[in-house]
Amino acid sequence: MYIILVYDICTIEKEGQNRLNKVMKLCRQYLHHTQKSVFEGELSEAKFIKLQNSIKNIIDFNNDYVIFYRIDNKNNVKKYNLGISFDPTTNIF
Amino acid sequence: MYIILVYDICTIEKEGQNRLNKVMKLCRQYLHHTQKSVFEGELSEAKFIKLQNSIKNIIDFNNDYVIFYRIDNKNNVKKYNLGISFDPTTNIF
């Protein structure tokens, strides 16, 4: 299955920056960092569940969100990007 | 077709907040505001093209991005939300 992950981690407090770094580090182990707060890629069912559970242990459920869009066949989604494309090696957010 | 729109408008400068407000106002005319920087909904081909062209006239191509994921059949995408859900009536970003 193809996964599109979009997140918004509240970094108003310092602890939020730690959560953001942890979520980014974790997501990079599973998916491609395609835009500032967007990851994409193919995942097995088992890895999808594992990623969700790992993220649940990091985020603040009162201030952060992570959305997963699951598309079983990658050919069923087309992507259009306007504006800056993203170089994952630049980690300045 | 079903559209998922994800954006990130750079608001470091004051002008960026104007662009953000314009993009949000525009997107609300076409799609549902489902998360802080995410809109979703059904669009015709004509409206999809019109929305893209309108956004092109607003964003700063060097600092902002808007991604459209186009899924022709809404049944081909499942959504999982972790963390805060979103009340579009609260416009505080």
Q: Can you describe what's shown?
A:
2 copies of one chain form a homodimer. Chain A has 93 residues and is of the alpha+beta class. Chain A has a single domain (2-73), classed as Alpha-Beta Plaits (2-Layer Sandwich), CATH 3.30.70. Helix content of chain A is 29%, strand content 32%. Chain A contains 2 helices and 5 strands. Chain A has helices at residues 14-28, 45-56; strands spanning 2-8, 32-35, 38-42, 65-71, 77-83. Chain A has a 4-stranded antiparallel β-sheet, covered by helices on one side. In chain A, strand 2 (32-35) and strand 3 form a beta hairpin. The longest helix of chain A is centred in the N-terminal third of the chain and has 15 residues, at 14-28. The radius of gyration of chain A is 13 Å and the shape is globular. The mean pLDDT of chain A is 92. The interface between A and B is large, with 36 and 36 residues.
Q: What is the topological layout?
A:
The structure is a homodimer of 93-residue chains.
Chain A: E1 2-8, H1 14-28, E2 32-35, E3 38-42, H2 45-56, E4 65-71, E5 77-83
Antiparallel strand pairs in A: 1-3, 1-4, 2-3
Q: Can you give me a brief rundown of this structure?
A:
The first copy, chain A, is an alpha+beta fold. The first copy, chain A, is built from 2 helices and 5 strands.
Uncertain runs of chain A: none
CATH architecture of chain A: 2-Layer Sandwich
Oligomer: homodimer
- Count of DSSP-assigned helices of chain A: 2
Total strands of chain A: the figure is: 5
What is the name of the CATH class of chain A? Alpha Beta
Q: Biggest interface: chains and residue counts? A: A-B, 36 and 36 residues
- Strand order in the largest sheet of chain A: 2-3-1-4
Helix and strand element order of chain A = EHEEHEE
Sum up the overall morphology of chain A in one term.
Answer: globular
Largest beta-sheet details of chain A: 4 strands, antiparallel
Report the CATH topology name of chain A.
Alpha-Beta Plaits
Protein name (chains A, B): CRISPR-associated endoribonuclease Cas2
GO molecular function, one term (chains A, B): hydrolase activity
Cofactor (chains A, B): Mg(2+)
Enzyme class (chains A, B): hydrolase
